[in-house]
Amino acid sequence: MRFLPLRAKIRPVADPAREEGNRFMKVTINRSVLELVEGDITLQDTEAIVNAANPSLLGGGGVDGAIHRAGGPQILEECKAIGGCPTGEARITSGGRLKARYVIHAVGPVYKDGRQREPEWLAGAYWSSLELASLNKIKSVAFPAISTGVYGYPMEAAAEVALTTVRRYLEGHPEIQRVRFVLFGTMAYEVYERALRAMKEEGRLKEGRPM
Ligand code: ADP
User: Fold this and answer.
1) Rounded CA separation 186/42 (Å)
2) Which residues, including other chains, have CB under 8 Å from residue 103's CB and lie 6 or more apart?
3) How far is the CA of 112 from the centre of ligand 1 (A)?
4) Would you say residue 187 lies in a domain?
5) What is the pLDDT of residue 19?
6) How far is the CA of 162 from the centre of ligand 1 (A)?
7) What is the number of structural domains in the chain?
8) What is the CATH number of the domain that holds 173?
């Protein structure tokens, strides 16, 4: 007779983002849940994952490369048909072989000195992604830290824009039930956690009861 590992029997119903055993934080905003998790966005089981794309939508390095590798050639074919996306906006394709049914390709700004409207462009990338999710009746979305890799946006400043924009959107859009930030590495996770804690402590989160 084979014994099941004990863990398999007693494991409680966990938050999906928690499965990897990585660090995790969760708050509620209005009727939605906002989560932070350290991990790899290509593995997420949200209905959509967001890609930090470039305006050509023809693929690149970083998270973009990882998503196309994991999702297979279909995503690139769809991107080619779309034909590009301006900075501060987003476009949607299927998720190919990914667990996520959709990929939302968001184009964040290249960071120069913070005075070239980078915060507006970055907020636009998040906001447009969420609008596309609402339009397509997508209820759960995972975001990477857009623009903070090759595009050079400082992580602290980017976290503030990302969290503020998503908070504002969720306050008016309960149809998005779950937004998850998937932070690649301990450093990124800690920056986001600090920013979210500060928001909570300063009373900037309108916490409600999730649906
Ligand atoms: P950008 O060009 O918008 O800066 P990058 O892909 O270079 O895009 O980086 C954006 C962020 O995504 C960086 O913080 C990077 O560490 C992170 N990243 C890279 N690979 C992954 C992954 N597989 N899952 C989640 N985040 C990732």
Assistant:
1) 17
2) 48, 49, 50, 51, 67, 71, 75, 92, 93, 94, 95, 96
3) 18
4) yes
5) 54
6) 14
7) 1
8) 3.40.220.10
Mark the ranges of the chain whose per-residue pLDDT is less than 70: 1-21
Give domain status of residue 116, yes or no. Answer: yes
pLDDT attached to residue 205: 83
Active-site hit among 15, 40, 45, 64: 64
pLDDT in tens, 195-211: 999 999 998 887 877 77
Give, for 129, the enclosing helix (H) or strand (E): helix 118-135
Q: What are phi and psi of 51, to 5 degrees?
A: -105, 140
From the alpha carbon of 151, which atom of ligand 1 is closest? 4
Tell me, what's the pLDDT at 18? 57
The answer as to whether 177 is a domain residue is: yes
Note the pLDDT of residue 15.
55
Beta bridge partners of 178: 33, 140
Burial call 15-36: b when 16+ CB within 10 Å, e when fewer: eebeeeeeebbbbbbbbbbbbb
pTM of the model: 0.92
